[in-house]
Hints:
Elements: E1 20-24, E2 32-38, E3 41-50, E4 64-71, H1 83-86, H2 91-105, E5 117-126, H3 131-149, E6 160-168, E7 171-174, H4 178-183, E8 186-193, E9 198-205, H5 212-238
Parallel strand pairs: 4-5
Antiparallel strand pairs: 1-2, 2-3, 3-5, 6-7, 6-8, 8-9
Helix pairs in contact: 2-3, 3-5
Amino acid sequence: MTDTAGKRPSGRAPDENRTVSIETGFARHAEGSALIRVGGTEVLCTATIEDRVPPFLRNKGQGWITAEYGMLPRATHSRGQREAAKGKQSGRTQEIQRLIARSLRACVDLKKIGERTITLDCDVLNADGGTRCASITGAWVALSLALKKAKRSQALTAQVAAVSCGLTDAGAVLDLDYIEDSNAQADTNFVLTADGGIIEIQGTAEDKPFQESEFFELLRLAKLGTARLFEAQNKALETA
């Protein structure tokens, strides 16, 4: 097992989330929106409903959920060039937006939304690690609000949130910020449901292979962390 004698740079306990807040209605023109703050990471998530579906779903009586993800140029320490200026999206951007879309499609009965497309836009305002996890967690709130507005709340089949965990000098820890993430020996992202389901797990050993026992410790931490995120989501929806 990894040495647990070290301390986290933030001073948090190994099983402690960063401070989380979710503000709904931030984008007043969208069918659903949520500004999620997870520590120093801030992501604006919006949901747009359109009466159309991709060509492969026409006349099949079901809808579709897709996602787009991006970072503002100064979301990070140095300015990043807008991908629109480069004329193409990076592989990282494409991978993250596909993850967001997969995660949200897994919690919706697409037949119950009819032939409509719901686009989830996740724009990172400030990045301090865990942007994909914050995007999924915030996008679920925006999606819930959009479905409610469209009187399709019954299409929602599960509550979804995501959190990162990793193996660091402080041992197995929950909800990595940028400093921890950039130096972790192993980095994992867990997309889980409130009823105990697993949608997706991404895990990478950065230094040397990690052990099964370490993986299950990371999963235990992820369950603790997402339980707190589910509470934050519910609180946001109650006050929407």
